[in-house]
Write a structure and sequence with these properties.
homodimer
């Protein structure tokens, strides 16, 4: 590459920086976000836990309520409980996927209990980030009416509190009120070629 | 809901469990995966860091090389360096996005240095998970030939080592050789409504 090319790159990037800085200068508002991670791909919970660890790093008080998969995300739970229980409260309310429990009445009861706790945590002004892990599964199965969640988030969530809701098949009503919504789309999955769930990857 | 409904649910879920258990029983292989997180949505790096924290939790030795955004993911970096430097080696090689540095020659040099280090970490039999954060950006700009990365991962990666490659615009050649690839798709983003990057969310 010639010196001319490097020079042209420099001029182009300097222009790009001016445009970008101008755009960024318009982004001044700070507010608590409703964040949704959905889709069939991997990373919905992992990315949410990534944000929880960011909060832990910045000493922003946070909380996690696991709605369904009591058996998964054990790595994150152990790490948080062992090292950062002062910065992040962790509650595992679910007992596993619905085909594991096979008891709908109990699933509904557990979901109600998890949601009541979630409301308390969100309303608590000391806590600035609440992760409702796999709540979309509970909503999808109708264990909890989505209207109730939407109403609480729009009417009662403190202005500066972030709430993350994860799980497949997020309701349209939820995406409607979200500030940030991401769909994790599956491009390729090793299960297809006979690879089992592995420590550090799946749990 | 009637007792009949609950009974029907139980029978249906019991059947689902049998099918699922049968499928899971065929997944017996354990191997180091090549994982790609791409797309325009959020969560590519967060989900990768989520996996790094899972490894830390399970005491699986890991390493992170940040190719580009020296200024971002600072939360995760500080937390890892402060608490878990024995379990996860952390290297920030990039100096920021290319429109910040405005120096292509230097960007290429830094990328080469980051890739040489990455190869050493991947080849090291003690380390079982290596995150190449934002490497897709470097590949996209042509600072590093994708063929070189593909060749190294297919020919020289130890069988039981996982490698995660993140960043927008992942090359087709990379997705081709990946075991697990996820596209984070943007459904909604708060930047659009004037909200700035916030601690715990973006960095």
């Amino acid at each position: 590459m010639s010196t001319d090319d490097f020079e042209r790159h420099k001029v182009k990037m300097a222009k790009k920086k001016v445009v970008r800085d101008k755009i960024m200068a318009t982004k001044t508002e700070s507010k608590g976000l409703v964040i949704v991670h959905t889709g069939k791909g991997k990373g919905k919970s992992s990315a949410a836990f990534g944000m929880i660890f960011r909060c832990i790093a910045h000493e922003i008080p946070s909380a996690v309520v696991q709605f369904i998969k009591g058996g998964m995300s054990t790595g994150e739970r152990d790490l948080i409980q062992e090292h950062f229980s002062d910065r992040c409260k962790f509650f595992t309310m679910g007992e596993g996927f619905t085909w594991e429990t096979q008891d709908k009445e109990r699933d509904i009861l557990m979901t109600r209990r998890a949601w009541d706790l979630s409301k308390q945590l969100i309303a608590n002004p000391e806590i600035k980030m609440v992760l409702l892990d796999e709540i979309n599964i509970s909503l999808r199965y109708g264990y909890l009416p989505v209207e109730e969640v939407v109403e609480f988030l729009t009417e009662h969530k403190p202005e500066d509190t972030h709430v993350i809701l994860t799980g497949r098949n997020a309701s349209e009503q939820l995406i409607e009120i979200a500030d940030l919504a991401t769909e994790m789309e599956l491009l390729k999955h090793p299960f297809r070629s006979g690879v089992k769930a592995q420590k550090g990857i799946e749990f």
